[in-house]
Amino acid sequence: MAKTKLELSFLLPGVPDARDRCVQRLAEELTQQDGFDDAHITSTLGDQQDRLCIHFDPALVSLADVRDIARRTGAKIEARYGHLTRRAEPMHARRASAIESRLSRVAGVLEAVVSPDGAVRVEFDRTIATEAEISAALSDWVRQSEPEPEEQTDHDHDGGGSDDAHAAAGHDHTHDGILGPRSELYFAIFCGVFLLLGWLLETFTEVAGWVPLGCYFAAYGFGGYYTVAEAIEK
Questions:
Q1: How many secondary structure helices (H) and strands (E) does the chain include?
Q2: Cβ proximity of 121 and 113 under 8 Å
């Protein structure tokens, strides 16, 4: 049994790294060919190039044929499966998760990964979706996730007509939550406070049972608010 090593950049030039599913597809298809025994990823110490090690029977297939079959099989896989990589602005982890969930539901998308640092990687089936369609959808969702700049304008908050003047001006002050940009932190604090208060009242006092129960409900409400909001957003 003989073996040869071929660089992935030669077989699958569009694949970002050896962990991609297309590498596994290539290895599986090659092992089904006559004369091919095994195919797996290998790397040499100090060598940054990922390589596919192919074991074959030289009595059934020549080295030249092995290379040609591997190259043609890789080209066939690349013609079927596309890869889109983008770098967006860093975002909140919850927003990244929501965009990733939306991308995963697009017809033809096989895998989508969106990181809070803005790195986006999508694998898709070219027979169902195009790179342009996925890129357009991604751009729209990323644009929606960007906070709108808050206009700094002098307002007259004195006098009885200040509210009407403020509304007429049509200014939109964007906040990240009900209590401002730190709403999620405040909700977590309220959750802990009500949970502790409910336990203290239930354990060390003789108040009516509905009082600590109400505290527990308030704690669950504050603690689960953003989880439910994220689920609805997805």
A1: 8, 6
A2: yes
User: pLDDT, tens digit, for every residue of 134-158?
Assistant: 988 888 887 765 555 555 444 444 5
> Domain 88-145 - what CATH class?
alpha beta
Total-model pTM? 0.57
Domain with residues 2-80, CATH architecture:
2-Layer Sandwich (3.30)
**Region 181-210: what's the mean pLDDT?**
84
Q: What is the pLDDT of residue 175?
A: 42
All residues at 6 or more sequence positions from 148 whose CB lies less than 8 Å from its CB, including other chains: 172, 174
* Phi, psi (degrees; rounded to nearest 5) at 52: -105, 120
Q: Distance between CA atoms of 13 and 10, rounded to whole angstroms? A: 6
- Quick one: average pLDDT of 85-102? 88
B/e letters for 168-178, b = 16+ CB within 10 Å, e = fewer, are eeeeeeeeeee
State the Cα–Cα distance between residues 98 and 230, nearest whole angstrom.
7
Please give the pLDDT value at position 94: 86
Pairing relationship of beta strands 119-125 and 109-114 according to DSSP bridges: antiparallel
180 burial (CB, 10 Å; 0-12 / 13-18 / 19+) is exposed
